[in-house]
Amino acid sequence: MPSVALAQEAKITEAPSTPVTEWMKVENAYLDTLPSGNKELFFILRNKYNVIRTIDVVHRDIENAVTACGQKNEALKTPMKKRLKDWEESIFPILAEADRLLERELNEQDAFHVSDYEHLMKLNDQAFKFSDAKIKKTPVTTAQACKGLLDSMDRTEDKLVGLLQEILLPQQVVRNRMDRARKLREKAKESAAKEKTEKAAE
């Protein structure tokens, strides 16, 4: 009887499975089978994939906001559409190149099976869509907010171009940059610990 009761209680308190928990469970189990160097490459390519998807989402959100603003503010409709077109002409060619590079790097590597990666990215997409669906995105369409969006497109364009240029770097360059960043963090940590010890000794 006690064992049955405990089993029932565990079943009640067990967290419900979601696309997010499913993706994390499957990916973590898969990564446990890979050597550390292979995991690092997987994370680099997954990060590139996520940046490309994020930029697609940013574009969708900006496009929806521009449409909503144009419907509510006739005077801003034409300049906002023109700015969106300019934004797309700056971002889309680099985005397409980043997509091609990711596919090439994925097919040239031998750290893991491409089919496994693609399966995990599908789970990643489902997890993202599940989380994104919980967020209600309603564009604010006051004249002030729409003018603010128009101005912010300069900043988002620069930031996204920078992100895309980062992921166009070959994976070995990314690895080297990660190694340098890790060493700098370790050096800063050592310096902080040394300073703390010296102060304690005073």
- What is the arithmetic mean of pLDDT? 86
- Give the total of beta strands: 0
Order of helices and strands: HHHHHHH
Structural class: mainly alpha
Tertiary shape: globular
Please, how many helices? Answer: 7
The first-to-last residue Cα distance is: 64 Å
In percent, how much strand structure appears in the residues? under 5%
Main sheet: strands, sense, barrel: none
Low-confidence stretches: 1-7
Give helix % range.
Answer: over 70%
What is the radius of gyration computed over CA atoms, rounded to a whole number of angstroms?
23 Å
Q: How would you concisely characterize the structure shown here?
A:
Helix content is 86%, strand content 0%. It has helices at 2-13, 19-31, 36-72, 74-108, 114-133, 143-167, 171-201.
Provide the fold topology:
Layout (H helix, E strand, L loop, with lengths): L1 H12 L5 H13 L4 H37 L1 H35 L5 H20 L9 H25 L3 H31 L1
Q: Can you give a write-up of this model?
A:
The protein is an all-alpha fold and 202 residues long. It contains seven helices and no strands. Helix 2 packs antiparallel against helix 5 and helix 3 runs antiparallel to helix 6. The longest helix is centred in the N-terminal third of the chain and has 37 residues. The protein is globular, with a radius of gyration of 23 Å. It starts with a helix and ends with a helix. The N terminus is likely disordered.
